[in-house]
Amino acid sequence: MNVYEGKNIRNVGIVGHGGSGKTSLVSAILFDTGATNRLGRVDDGNAPTDYDEEEIERKVTISAKLAFCEWNKNKINLLDTPGFGNFIQEARGALRVADAAIVVVDAVSGVMVQTEKTWGYAEEFQLPRLVVVNRMDRDTANFERSLESIQQTLGRMCVPIQVPLGAERGFKGVVDLIQMKAYTYPSDGSGKGSEGEIPADAAGRVQEYREKLVEAVAESDEKLMEKFFDTGSLSDEEMVAGLKKQVIEGKIYPVLYTSATGNIGIQPLLNAILNLLPDAVARGNVTGKDAHGKEVQRKIADNELFSAFVFKTFSDPFTGRVSLFRVYSGHASTEVQPYNSNKGVSERFGSMVLLQGKTQVTVPKVLAGDIAAVAKLKDTQTGDTLSDKGHPISYNAIKWIEPVISFAIEPKSRGDEEKISTAIHKLMDEDLGIRYAREPQTKEFLISGQGQMHVELAVGRLKKRYGVEVLLHPPKVPYRETIKGKADVQGKHKKQSGGHGQYGDCKIRMEPLPRGGDFEFVNEIFGGAIPRNYIPAVEKGIQEARQKGVLAGFPTVDFRVVLYDGSYHDVDSSEMAFKIAGSLAFKKGIREARPILLEPVMNVEVQGPEEFAGDLMGDLNSRRGRVQGMDVRGHATVIKAQVPLAEMLSYASDLTSKTGARGSYTMEFSHYDEVPGHLADKVIANAKAGVTGEEEEEE
Ligand SMILES: Nc1nc2c(ncn2[C@@H]2O[C@H](COP(=O)(O)OP(=O)(O)OP(=O)(O)O)[C@@H](O)[C@H]2O)c(=O)[nH]1
Ligand SMILES: [Mg+2]
Fold first, then answer.
1. Residue 395 — φ and ψ, nearest 5°?
2. Cross-strand partners of 487
3. Which residues, 6+ apart, have CB-to-CB distance to 401 below 8 Å?
């Protein structure tokens, strides 16, 4: 295998909504460039970058994968990423080390939730982008409509540099609007295209979009603009140079058309990657921090000191831990001794490998700009920087998205707790999106992730890899309690039989606060009914008591306490006594003030193909959801609703099965709302059953 210099390398992250054809596109690229000798297919379980057992079984990409091809004496590193919401942070992790993104859009459904999300990640890392409209061969795939969806949501500067030839099953190639040539492909999937003149029936559209492209290029550059106004046109050289410059500056996002499974339009895409996207050294410098936290820069060049960023870790059944890294400066080889500046330890490099999906290809060294892997680093984790020991540098790690769903996890056989914890921590080594913690309130161990599928997958791996079997319980909904009415009560704590007594006495009024008001304590004591130094103790007593509400033990919120009277005893009063008095008053007051249960309500946005709109609405209604609006984006319907979290616990998998994995949703906290009476009784009964169950166990 050749060693490539950064100026001949492109690092592209392939991102987009689930099922848009990213993995199939990578398969076609690898086949057409001769990196593989057959066209791998997701549906047949032999796509090079969907090789995990779970991926083959589910036909979705679960973790980011690396592959590469050689094209016109350049090396293209392809990072295939998941588009399913549960695993979308993998896309972000991959873009962290890419120099450009290919955003894949399904020609039928247009831009969807995860398309926008990954577009946002590319924005975050300021990456130049190509938009690839794939699945052009499908029924109802439509050039104009998909473009409208793209320009509406991703922006007007998404400009076609091709127009497709033929439609739906008749899709057979593209016209390149720069070369003004047609590229057509046979229907046998061989990918062997031929160049030709523009067919007469496409001439009108070609003319129209060529003009739009020229205008877009002229528009984003003052000099070209002048020239364009003077002469009404640009030369071919001005076009190419102008376009490349503006793609790299993020002013234009070229749109291309493919059928990945039909192997149509792949070479023009490869040419666009080489001709329009920046090489691996184009960025010039990268900024990191030295040992003292001071900003330092490294030039992306082979003759600089070594530095590399580890962006992914996975465990291989044969070689153990494998770390994927991008070399930013210097080079990596067995001769280099890497120092992990985050952990403060030296590591040892084994042989360098390039990854072709699961196939490892050994290389003597890896130069600045390239992406490769190495096995058996001891202490290095995802997000760490390896560098020269004498000149340590660390690059910014990726901040991972917080988990959205939690399950209580319990060993199938007692005494396995220790084993679970060890095994989960090993999993977390390769999946930073998983969290594991003990919930102090319920004493349960919680495993959290980006969705039900994410957590279930982790649990499946626990069993498969480490032989630990666990049970998952429905996640606990963080209910709250509050009051609807008012109360005026006295809390008196008095123990004065023998020895030093205890005396605390307070009178409080309670009233509801608006939602989100949490807790307020107002002191209206005048004239020393309670000495000033005991007043904080009353408040503390209430603060502590409200953590466990009177209905079902959930925190009590959104109420005000006004302390207005009380009494004390010269000798027997103490802080402790007033704290207890406060908590007694709280419990009594809450009971009198019509306590109710609150539940979290979520803002939910569901997106799915139009034909499911009715089903999805009905389903949200049956989950006590309040639908707030419906929108159409391309062929996709977007439904916005507010739904109680308690009804959304299994939504991820329900939606997947309802829509054949074509639906997706996002969810964020909106507000707390009262739990309807009949459901509240159930929640309270369950909470009480849970609590007594646990107490019995402890005894
Ligand atoms: N007709 C048609 N089907 C395609 C095309 N590209 C992909 N598919 C099919 O669409 C489905 C999804 O393709 P994938 O390549 O797995 O899509 P993906 O974007 O990698 O999906 P995730 O990894 O789950 O995000 C598979 O059944 C493919 O066979 C295409 O161009 N035309
Ligand atoms: Mg995929």
1. -95, 155
2. 510
3. 88, 89, 92, 433, 450
For the CA of 17, the nearest ligand? 1
Q: How far is CA 287 from CA 122, 161, 305, in A?
A: 18, 34, 14
Task: Kindly list the protein residues whose Cβ atom lies closer than 6 A to any atom of ligand 1.
Answer: 18-24, 42-43, 60-61, 82-84, 134-135, 137-138, 259-262
Residue 248 CA to residue 231 CA, distance in Å, equals 26
> Which DSSP state fits 688?
H
Contacts of residue 555, defined as CB under 8 A and 6 or more positions apart, other chains included, come to 480, 481, 546, 547, 548, 549
pLDDT digits (tens, 9 = 90+) for 604-663: 989 888 889 999 999 999 999 999 999 887 677 899 999 998 998 888 778 888 887 778
Rounded Cα–Cα distance for residues 222 and 200 (Å): 34
pLDDT number for residue 441: 58
Measured CA to CA in angstroms, residue 353 lies from 70, 95, 385, 504 at distances of 16, 20, 18, 73
User: How many whole angstroms from its chain centre is CA 487?
Assistant: 46
Per DSSP (E only), the strands in 469-613 are: 470-473, 480-483, 487-495, 502-512, 519-523, 559-567, 595-609
Nearest CA to ligand 1 atom 7: 21
- Tens of pLDDT, residues 10-37: 999 999 999 999 999 999 999 999 999 9
Q: Which residues of 269-284 are buried (b: 16+ CB within 10 A; e: fewer)?
A: bbbbbbebbbbbbbbe
For ligand 1, atom 27, the nearest C-alpha belongs to 43
Could you tell me the two tokens for 666? 């996002």
Please check whether residue 329 is in contact with residue 306, taking contact to mean a CB–CB distance below 8 angstroms.
yes
User: Which protein residue has the closest C-alpha to ligand 1 atom 9?
Assistant: 21
Give the ligand 1 atom nearest the CA of 661.
Answer: 24
Q: How far is CA 51 from the centre of its chain?
A: 21
CB atoms within 10 A of CB 285: 13
d(CA 93, CA 631): 31
- Evaluate if residue 388 carries a pLDDT over 70: yes
SS (H, E, C) 374-392: EECCCCCCCCCEEECCCCC
Q: How far apart are CA 386 and CA 311, in angstroms?
A: 11
For residue 326, give the amino acid letter.
R
Cβ pair 224, 234 in contact under 8 A: yes
* Signed CA dihedral, 458, 464, 466, 468: sign only: positive
3-state helix, strand, coil in the chain (%, to 5): 30, 30, 35
Non-local CB neighbours of 527 within 8 Å, separated by 6+ positions: none
Q: Residue 344: left (phi > 0), alpha (psi -120 to 50), or beta?
A: left
Average pLDDT over residues 262-268: 98
Distance CA 461, CA 451 (A): 16
CA distance 24 to 1: 24
% of the chain beyond a pLDDT of 90: 74
Instruction: Give first-to-last CA distance, the chain, whole Å.
Output: 66
β-pair partners for 307: 329, 387
Nearest CA to ligand 1 atom 32: 135
Mutation choice for ligand 1 from 17, 24, 117, CB with most ligand atoms inside 8 A? 24
* Residue from 261, 263, 264 to probe ligand 1 pocket by mutation (most atoms less than 8 Å from CB): 261
